[in-house]
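Hi R.,

Here's the chain you asked about this morning:
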Amino acid sequence: MNGHDVIRDVTESSLSDSGPVSLRELDALFDQSPAALVFRDRELRARRTNAAFRRLFGLPDEAIIGHLPSEFDAEMDMALVERILAEQVIDRGVPVVDVHVKRSVAGERRVLLWSAHPVTENGQVLGTLCFFKDITSQATSLRQAHDLLERAGHQIGTTLDIYRTAAELTDLAVPGLADHVTVGLLDQVLQGEDLPRPGSDPLRFRRVAVRDISKTRGKVGYKVGDLFTVPAPVTGPPSSVLLRGKPLLARNRAEVGGRFSHVPDIAEALLARGVHTFIAVPLIARGVTLGVATFSRAEHPEPYGEADVRLASNLASRAAVCIDNARLYTRERTTAVTLQRSLLPRDIPQVPGLELAHRYQPASQTAEVGGDWFDVIPLKDGRAALVVGDVTGHSIHAAALMGQLRTTSAALARLGHPPEEIMTQLSGVVSGHGEETGATCLYALYDPASRRCRLTSAGHLPPALRYPDGRVDFIDVPGGVLLGVGQGRHPATDIDLPAGSVLALYTDGLIEHPGQDITTGMSRLARTLAAGPARSLDELCDSVLVSLGAHARDDIALLLARTATETAR
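And the predicted structure, written out as tokens:
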């Protein structure tokens, strides 16, 4: 009942001619009302107060009776109050309903709800009955809820990690909203499987976050990573919450026990923990129910109400979107990495006159994998083609295009096409995927018999050459235009590779880092190649990745080829 309803009931009962209401009953109604009431005459002087009013304002009756509002309360804007009462309530008979006002009561700042209603008899306004209600606790709760929701926008979803996002929800909700919070997701969601059919299949839940601040009682023995199965048919939380898509509220210990009657071990654990009130809300994002978040109180004395359910649901809704973002990211990235790895060569073929080693490292911090690739293509005449490339962008599409380029380059090389022509053909493949798609590529055709190497580049970084004495240079290969950006030329250059030298082909993820000039990365690569192990090419690969790839934000493809010390025959 709001202030308007209270005043209307009192005034209508006081002056009604239709019912047999005695003065004693009217006095009892006025004096015993929990609402703080004061009756003022047409001149706005107080004529009667009740005990609730005197307690609220902390004044005796003699300090109020006969006085105007401005004569006993200097905190509120009483000039405005008196003007509203006189012009709106007394003169026009229009009530004032639920106005928020602030004042100090017993040294504490309080928020009051003020209403005023005209009191009439035979159509004449006799005065006004004013109502005050202390809503400080409700106002504080609303402010705290608003603050919590505002913080949720900044503190939930800071990463694309499902477990971390769920933990951010529990960290935010404890201790302001709950003493104990858990987040459980359907294991099928985490595994990328189809969701179970409602009501027919068991539900497998995986706890991905738990927070408990109990100091006086034993904590509920829930752990992150726990898997628990609810057999069909499902009836209670969290299964019923998940299937119905609606929150569940238990206001007291009896309801907590009743909600978990089908799983007595959980009910006993919660009650032993001291839980006296409980909320379970579904985690729903983009029409998919991912799991359930539960909130409970033990140390916190206040039971949950509908406002708490709305707050918990809003927090869960925000967290669900972030969790779903992380889920979709994880699924797409796993798919892309799997696709990319499947398109890269599983085993490097043996090439007479060359020792080979390679490494591929997916990006560790980017949202998706890219289209980096490498290949070694033995040819019938004893020569071998060494290829590295990088499709621009990061997506499954980039990985798929990478596979197409690798297949095309291998086929053209085996057909005997020269490097310049192969680049032109690859550029046509890329351009067929749209103007926003591009790629770089470096193609090296090596003849072990002559140690002659013919190189051509489509906007790729220059290869490094480590000489037998440890000196490192970068080969000046004409840059050429990127694949897919037009009919540009890709001129080739020929060099002789000394016996025992190491040719290093790589993608930009190895040497490009935020805030660092590319020449710095190339210098680091040169120093690492020079200082690396001379005997084992695999060890040299590892030392390069350790030195330059530990914090890479892009994919890395690295291919090392060492020429034989004797001419291949």
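The longest helix spans residues 306-343.

Let me know if you need anything else.
M.
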